[in-house]
Amino acid sequence: MPETHPVPALPERLLLGPGPSNVPERVRRAQGAPMIGHLDPAFLAVLEEAKAALAELFGTRNRFTLPLSATGSAGMEACLVNLLEPGDRVVVGVHGVFGSRMCEVARRAGADVTAVEAPFGQALDPDAMREAIRAIKPRAVAFVHAETSTGVLQPVEEIAAAACDADALVILDCVTSLGGVSVALDEWGIDAAYSGTQKCLSCPPGLSPVSFSERALERVRARSHPVQSWYLDVTLLDGYYATGKRVYHHTAPISAILGLAEGLRIVLEEGLDARAQRHREAAGRLIAELEPLGFEPLVAEALRLPPLTTLRLPRAVTSRGEADVRARLLLHHGIEVGGGLGPLAGSIWRVGLMGENAHPECVDRLVTALREELT
Questions:
Q1: Which residues contact 10 (CB under 8 A, 6 or more apart)?
Q2: Which CATH entry fits the domain spanning 25-267: 1.10.3720.10, 3.30.360.10, 3.40.190.150, 3.40.640.10?
Q3: What CA–CA distance (Å, rounded) separates 263 from 252?
Q4: Domain locations in the chain?
């Protein structure tokens, strides 16, 4: 008989970093369902259910709303490479790492990029964005709704309205907002948006929910150059994901989509308003409980992103080395928190209370561990 080897056991962690978040048992069971074909009617019924649920979460009637078979970064790339051709002008709002990544992806697509920057920890200035849009007359305007690197929840309406006035397409990063705060693509006038499954949806990473308006799809069909990515070309994906006769494109990640469908059922059972309120309450509790230990929120209250709180570090942490304290939390308490990125590296922590983890007991467990380590 062939030699067998035990599968290494992974440790149980409380994932309070910027993602992934912990996965509910219901989702884990769904992902362990028997394998079936990606064109099996039973699977396609689940896929249609997931598409409808994603449209509800995105606040849209866009028929092209689906779980892209790739992570959130591919969702970003899909939106940009489909809607931008070489030489197209695009205005990108940059108030964190992921706005900068948008710029890089757009440049690689051959676009002429104008970045409108704001300091990390602050929101984009709508007037600065409006001025750039008027001056540049771009094909598209792109910015981040929930900036995971800074914990800023960007107001959307003014910037989207300025883009619409200039007949520009609007691209929105919803990676850390979908399922945790209100998203209203149709109301805001958004043409393309993307997210990830591992944040507020509390599913494993590997899928990127995306949504394209009909105006965006018409823009893709009117391109003079082919989309630079065959895999992410939405005209090909539309044939594969469209209800009815499906044109083979790729083999969908069946187990991942079964898990996502179950995760979306959990979201809708709770209700979007109740879920958003739970995230706000968890973030408020975190800030209040950590204040006596010297932690201070980086972001002004009106702009805070409840699923992801950024905290300035007290001397009790920095004097010991913030990375060392985070390592102790992980190794001795089984709790993961995230460090800062870019100019914020070493000076803040990013604490995610997303989806399954936006509960008082998760906050209390972190606070207890920090008191033990710092006092």
A1: none
A2: 3.40.640.10
A3: 18
A4: 25-267, 271-374
Which position has the token pair 């083999």? Answer: 251
Q: Is the pLDDT of residue 157 over 90?
A: yes
In the predicted model, is pLDDT for residue 371 greater than 70?
yes
Q: pLDDT digit string (tens) for 301-335?
A: 999 999 999 999 999 999 999 999 999 999 999 99
User: Distance (Å, rounded) from C-alpha 16 to C-alpha 232?
Assistant: 31
Place of tokens 């995760």: 263
Q: With residue 103 as reference, give the H or E element that holds it.
A: helix 97-108
pLDDT for the residue 2? 66
| Beta carbons within 8 Å of 303's beta carbon, 6+ residues apart | 122, 123, 152, 153, 154, 155
Query: Quick one: angle between helices 360-374 and 322-333, nearest 10?
Result: 120
- How much helix, strand and coil, in percent to the nearest 5, is found in the chain? 45, 15, 40
296, pLDDT greater than 80: yes
pLDDT 10s digits, 10-32: 999 999 999 999 999 999 999 99
pLDDT at 104: 98
User: Quick one: CA dihedral 289, 151, 14, 283, positive or negative?
Assistant: positive
Give the integer Cα–Cα distance in Å for 160 and 126: 9
Sign of the Cα pseudo-torsion (82, 151, 18, 358, in order): negative
The answer to whether residues 109 and 87 touch, using CB atoms and an 8 Å cutoff, is no
**In terms of pTM, does the model score above 0.85?**
yes
First to last CA, the chain: 56
CATH homologous superfamily for the domain 271-374: Aspartate Aminotransferase, domain 1 (3.90.1150.10)
Spatial distance between the Cα atoms of 347 and 318, rounded to a whole number of angstroms: 8
Residue with tokens 């970064």: 73
Q: Which residues pair with 113 in a beta bridge?
A: 90
